[in-house]
Amino acid sequence: MTAGRWPYPAWVAHRGAGKLAPENTLAAFRLGAAHGYRMFECDVKLSADGVPFLLHDATLERTTNGQGTAGDKPWDELSRLDAGSWHSRAYAGEPLATLAGVARFCQASGLLLNIEIKPTPGSEAATGAAVADAAAVLWAGQPVPPLLTSFQPAALEAAQAAQPALPRGLLLDELSPGWDQAAGRLGCQVLVCRHSLWTAHLVQQARGLGLRAASYTVNDVAEAQRLRALGDHTVITDRVDLFSSAC
Question: The whole model's pTM is what?
C-alpha cells in the first residue's frame, strides 16, 4: 500500500465511540457505527496467555472492576471482568473485547479498523509481532486490511518483520529528533500526531516522505476544520455525535 492508494475514510471513531460508551468495547463499536462511522481506532495488548484484547491502560482499575496489570492475567480471568459499569449503569456487565471479536463485528458490518498496538511495558516486540500475526489471519482475504499504529517503534518494528504487508503508522505526541528516519525505517504509510503538532510545514514534510497525515484526538469543530484544510488529513475523534454527518 502506498500513500497514493489510501482506502481509509477521513473520520475515525476513537476507541469505538469516544466517550459516549465504555471505550474499547463492542458496545462502543456498535454505537459508533450507529452514528455512521465506517472506521474505528482501538488499543490492543496481549493477555498473559497471548490473547490479543482491547484495553488502553496497562492496568485494569480505570475501565474494569479488575485490579493489577492486565497483561499479567490470563484471558479466562480477563473475560469475566465488567468493563462497562465504570462508564454508566446502562453498560453494566459489558465484557472486554478480543481482537477476534472486533474483527468479526467489523467484517460483518463492512467497517475498517485502526489497531493501536499498546504493549504492556516490556513486551513491545512480542506484542507487535503477535498482534500483526493475529491481524493477518483475522483479515485474510478482506479487501482492506487493518492499519497498525503505535507510539512504540519496537512494536512497529516487530509488526513489520512479522507481517510486512500490513500498513503501519507512527504515533507521535511530540516531534522528537529522528521521527522522520524512524517512520522511514519502519515502512510507515501514515504519520499520526497529536493534533496541535500539525502545521502546513509538517504536512509538507510528511508528504515529502510519502506519508499521509492523521490527527488524534480532535473534538473541536474549529480544530477539525483547520486540520482538514491542511490537506490529506484523517481525523480521529471522540465526538461521534458532533462529527457524524461528516463521515
Answer: 0.97
